[in-house]
Design brief:
mainly alpha; two-stranded antiparallel sheet
Length: 238
């Protein structure tokens, strides 16, 4: 309740709640773990060390029972707090999510949505993300085809995971690339999801630009070390 309202509880109550959570940690389910991480992220508050350790232990113990949404919520919470996961927890969660992606059927499903695309009068069809979308006679509705996501995952979980992995600096993993490809093929997205993925794209573009500038600087440094009397060459402009 406090997290939903984004109001931190009184210090004495906060301490008591954290102590009680540690005592009950062995009975925590994946949903309990994800909700706890989510609550601290909403409050922008780090859990006490004893509770953080207990959550890490329980996460590793029950990670096989995590659903994709649980994993996405935990990743989102760590990214929101600006705190990296411990490597064992990060690897375990990423492996669990990758297993879920493996279960995704390579198939499309039909869905009826409000028509919100530019209508092509000639072919009586709509287009979205390169996929042909057939319209019904009633132009207020249209039938679209979107890629089926892994069981237990929705489009918000997918964008949350991509956003979190980028902020946590884990964009070089196979999971990130697979989620990115899945997102590109998944079909329709709402405004929030588009904003999240745009932030991911911006982060990747900045990271790529930084890598190019670093490589150029190292090249100049090597040339200078090889020939100290050489005139410096102009740097490429970003």
């Amino acid at each position: 309740a406090f997290a939903t309202l984004a109001i931190p509880p009184p210090p004495s109550l906060y301490a008591s709640l954290c102590e009680r959570m540690v005592e009950l940690m062995d009975s925590y389910t994946p949903q309990n773990v994800a909700n706890t991480y989510w609550a601290f992220a909403r409050l922008l508050s780090e859990p006490p060390h004893s509770l953080a350790e207990a959550l890490d232990r329980q996460t590793l113990y029950i990670v096989e029972d995590f659903r994709p949404q649980n994993v996405a919520n935990v990743l989102w919470a760590f990214a929101k707090l600006g705190r990296g996961l411990s490597e064992p927890v990060a690897r375990a969660l990423e492996q669990r999510l990758e297993e879920a992606v493996d279960e995704a059927p390579d198939a499309f499903e039909a869905e009826e949505v409000e028509a919100d695309f530019e209508h092509n009068q000639t072919h009586n069809s709509y287009r979205n993300n390169g996929e042909l979308i057939n319209s019904s006679e009633n132009n207020s509705k249209t039938i679209i085809k979107r890629l089926k996501l892994p069981p237990g995952m929705n489009s918000q979980d997918l964008s949350n995971s991509l956003w979190a992995l980028s902020l946590l600096g884990r964009t070089e993993t196979s999971l990130f690339y697979r989620l990115w490809e899945l997102w590109q093929r998944s079909g329709l997205w709402d405004t929030r999801e588009l904003v999240q993925v745009y932030e991911v794209y911006t982060y990747l573009a900045a990271k790529n630009q930084h890598a190019k500038q670093k490589q150029a600087s190292q090249t100049v440094l090597r040339r200078t070390e090889t020939n100290p009397n050489a005139e410096p060459q102009p740097q490429p402009q970003p």
